[in-house]
Amino acid sequence: MNRLNEKLVARTQRAAFSLMEIMAAIVILGILAAVMVPRLAGHQDKAKKSACYANKGDIELQAKLWRRNNGTYPLANLSDIGASTTYFPGALPVCPVDGTAYTIDTTTGKVVGHTH
After folding, report:
1. Which residues pair with 111 in a beta bridge?
2. Listed residue (112, 101, 106, 115) closest to 53, CA to CA
3. Nearest residue to 104 via CA among 86, 33, 72
4. Per-residue H/E/C for 10-78
5. With contact defined as beta carbons under 8 Å apart, do 74 and 84 qualify?
6. Is 108 helix (H, G, I), strand (E, B) or coil?
7. Residue 105: which domain range?
8. What are the pLDDT digits (tens) for 60-105?
9. Position 7 in a domain
């Protein structure tokens, strides 16, 4: 009977974490968060700039196709090509960096601005 009591006492003494162990884990998680958050935020900005660059290329390509099919480049604000689901089935993209609409130079078909 004495042996059984010793096993029960040993089992109940170590049933939870101590306050110091919990505090140490919280401090370690805080340090990791402080290191990781700035790094992740920088990658988000880079991804948005890359998406803007890809949108520019897509718009310029579609403007060239529009010119081949219609003889002239689309309007500078892209309202005519944006209304056609042939060229932009989802919708005319907007800049992911600042949310502004794209415009083109109607003589060259190149996107104006958006040099992020």
Report:
1. 104
2. 115
3. 72
4. HHHHCCCCCHHHHHHHHHHHHHHHHHHHHHHHHHHHHHHHHHHHHHHHHHHHHHHHHHHHHCCCCCCCC
5. no
6. coil
7. 13-112
8. 999 999 999 999 999 999 999 999 899 999 899 999 999 999 999 9
9. no
Tell me the C-alpha distance between 103 and 25, whole Å: 52
Q: Is 75 exposed, middle or buried (0-12, 13-18, 19+ CB in 10 A)?
A: middle
Calculate the CA dihedral of residues 65, 69, 72, 75 and round it to 10 degrees: -60
Q: What is the pTM of this model?
A: 0.66
Q: How far apart are CA 105 and CA 75, in angstroms?
A: 9
The single residue listed with the structure tokens 């101590």 is 18
CA dihedral of residues 96, 97, 102, 103 (deg, nearest 10): -170
Q: How many domains in the chain? A: 1
- 3 occurs within a structural domain: no
